[in-house]
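It is worth pausing here to work through a concrete case rather than discussing structure prediction in the abstract. The textbook approach is simple: state the sequence, then state the predicted structure, then interpret. We follow exactly that order.
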Amino acid sequence: MIATTSATTAFATEPFAGPPYDTAIIILDLEVGVRNLGMGATGVSSTSRLGSAYYNPATIAWADAATLSLGYLDGPIDIEMTDTRAAYGFLGGDDASKNVWRLGAEIGFTTLGVDPIVVRTIFLPEGTGETFDPDYNYLTSTLALAWEHGNEAIAAGVSGKYLHLNRPGGTADSWLLDFGLIASWKYMLSGSMLRPRAGFSMTNLDTGLEYDSREYRIAGQTRYGGGVDFVAPPMTTWGRSVAAASVAFDVDYVDRGRYNSYWALGWEISVLEFFQARAGYQWFDSPSSSTNLSLGVGIGWDFGHWMTRIDYAHFTPNINSDSLELDRDTVSATFGARF
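Step two, the predicted structure:
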């Protein structure tokens, strides 16, 4: 395999080439988006301006500023990953008739580093005495469009990815495609707002990958999900009209084929649009019925012409192991401006 979800998996040079088969790529399997991670890695139906295109490209349609987000993940088995994303949102249409168009675009660059890998062959399973520093990265370009008519909204988005792997024995490259849809409905209740949401996405649809004289297909993911937002009536705080409180709830199902499909639940409570507390839970369709728990917080403020915030999430797999540390810590800083 080119790479699996375990960074310590070594490579075996096989004496005979076989037919194409699916392979998991570790950098594609590690989710990005600190808000989403704090909510159990949910987000396929997100309409938040902090939504991540990793889960559904259509989320970028709700970007409402020029933003730069810098993320860092301290992962299991000495994995370190950085994720840098720049997004821009444009709003057009006629507010008076409640007929509005939203256009969002994003460019992202994700890199991953792991400890040196021991080079092994089928004839030397204990190792050849050589090690290799692997290099994983991908570049993402996303475009999304939303149409809001009255209390209804629908969005569609597409992402193109260029994946590059530097592995023992050579390099490998592939082009990947993601696409997704989101629909939402808004209801006003005595000054409060209730918004149910539904989303769908397919990610990592690939052109194939050739490595070590073998052809590979990259394992894709299909996500289905829904959620609901409740936003309390606004109040004036520090010179701005903000929601006194809001609550978001998400549920996603992620179909990863033979790679442990899972369900995920996520919650977020926001106070004055300044502080957020998050929690999430995952359980897998596997004989072991493994689970993951996540917790997260965020703090930031929108000053009108510019905004800034910091988010943190901790991910804890429920796996009994005395030798492996599989927890994940991730943090991001976001800066935005409106022109």
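Step three, interpretation. The chain has one domain: 21-337. The first strand starts at residue 21 and ends at 23.
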